[in-house]
Amino acid sequence: MIVQRVVLNSRPGKNGVPMAENFRLEQSTIADTVQAGQVRVKTLYLSVDPYMRCRMNEDTGSDYLQPWQLSEVADGGGIGVVEESKHQNLAKGDFVTSFTWPWQTVAILDGNSLQKLVPQLVNGRLSYFLGAAGITGLTALLGIREKGHVAVGANQTMVVSGAAGACGSLAGQIGRLEGCSRVVGIAGTDEKCSILVQEMGFDAAINYKKGDVAKQLRELCPGGVDVYFDNVGGDISDAVISQMNQNSHIILCGQISQYNKDVPYPPPLPADTEKIRKEKNITRERFLVLNYMDKQEASVLQLCQWIQEGKLKVRETVVEGLANIGAAFQSMMNGGNIGKQIVSVSK
Ligand SMILES: NC(=O)c1ccc[n+]([C@@H]2O[C@H](COP(=O)([O-])OP(=O)(O)OC[C@H]3O[C@@H](n4cnc5c(N)ncnc54)[C@H](OP(=O)(O)O)[C@@H]3O)[C@@H](O)[C@H]2O)c1
Fold first, then answer.
1. C-alpha 258 – ligand 1 centre gap (Å)
2. pLDDT digits (tens, 9 = 90+) for 84-127
3. Phi/psi at 170 (nearest 5 deg)?
4. Which atom of ligand 1 is nearest to the CA of 164?
């Protein structure tokens, strides 16, 4: 059978900016028959995520991430529908997902590598399983629960960077649901800031491309910052840390502003910021959602319940067509997305 797939065409280099041209669409063939234990799936949705930037390097810098190989099909979070099954637990028409879904229109996969999805849990919005009810939602929820020290009634102020992105937009809302009394977001455009406040219930939002972030934080967080959900690192995080309270907590979710640089993860803080962190006894422990997968099932149910109740507002930026996945990745890395960046492959 002839299929379309997307392969890694070239590496941007450890210090390079990733471009759509780093990926290539090509035709390929898959077997006409499905073997015992396998299923043939049609791809519906693919996820593009910042961690993929590391997979474009020959050495990802992480033992849990494998590099993509040149001229080989790329992979990541994906959702599809079973077209033919020789796996005992999967049937034609089932919706399934995997963290290692090939960027391919149709694929033959090992049935044991797939998780069955229940569309009703997300009001039929299947792609949410890649975002708010998937690894993104889990990252926001478990990051807050494992590293945030958020407590109901403690009158805490949370600041979120990368706040209009996939994790950030959920983290601010979950911070509120878990008990924070004030939530302030930091994002890269006025439109994003307005969505955060008007749609997602943030108390305020700062456009970091306009004006002094530390000064605006002083005005917007008069009691200081107790919890910082950090998606970006760099200058923005230095400004937030300068406004943090004694014994406060950083949720070290990601450092996207550093991903096109050849630096270790997590990148060390500049000396003056590190001095503040130490003096104020601010925690900054590494957080990796994959270390908490024992909590996946219960946490996904919690996220789905909030979505169904309308307590968690979900935004997606959907790009149509497998051919556009490289452009979608490039755009997301440059702030083109609001909420989760999804690629719809069905059309
Ligand atoms: N720890 C974990 O287990 C885990 C799991 C998933 C994701 N993550 C991390 O969480 C972070 C957010 O991931 P996501 O999926 O939610 O991505 P995302 O926020 O949806 O997309 C990236 C966003 O980051 C912002 N950005 C890009 N470059 C920036 C820069 N130099 N300075 C400030 N902001 C910049 C852009 O928005 P602006 O317009 O605001 O610039 C962009 O839209 C990433 O660092 C990712 O690696 C960690």
1. 10
2. 999 999 999 999 999 999 999 999 999 999 999 999 999 999 99
3. -80, -40
4. 40
Cis omega (within 30 of 0) for bond into 50: no
Beta pairing class for 38-47 and 340-344: antiparallel
CATH superfamily ID and name for 2-131+315-344:
Medium-chain alcohol dehydrogenases, catalytic domain (3.90.180.10)
CATH superfamily of 135-290: NAD(P)-binding Rossmann-like Domain (3.40.50.720)
From the CA of 340, give the closest atom in ligand 1: 20
What are the residue ranges spanned by the domains of the chain? 2-131+315-344, 135-290
pLDDT the model gives residue 211 = 87
Q: Is the pLDDT of residue 225 over 90?
A: yes
pLDDT band at 222 (very low <50, low <70, confident <90, very high): very high
Ligand 1, pocket residues at CB < 6 Å: 49-51, 136, 139, 162, 164-168, 187-189, 192, 231-232, 236, 253-257, 287-289, 332, 335, 337, 341
Calculate mean pLDDT across residues 206-215: 96
CA of 234, closest atom in ligand 1 = 32
- Tell me: the pLDDT tens digits for 260-269? 999 999 999 9
CA of 254 to the centre of ligand 1 (A): 7
Amino acid at 68: W
Statement: the pTM of the whole predicted model exceeds 0.70: yes
Q: What percent of the chain has pLDDT over 90?
A: 98
Mutate to test the pocket of ligand 1, among 174, 231, 265 (most ligand atoms within 8 A of CB): 231
Residue 27 Cα to ligand 1 middle (Å): 32
Closest CA to ligand 1's atom 19 = 165
Q: How many CB atoms lie within 10 A of CB 74?
A: 26
Atom nearest to 339 CA in ligand 1: 20
Long-range contacts of 33-38 (CB under 8 A, 24+ apart): 34/84, 34/85, 34/86, 34/108, 35/86, 35/108, 36/86, 37/86, 37/87, 37/110, 37/111, 37/112, 38/86, 38/87, 38/108, 38/109, 38/110, 38/111
Closest approach atom of ligand 1 to CA 163: 40
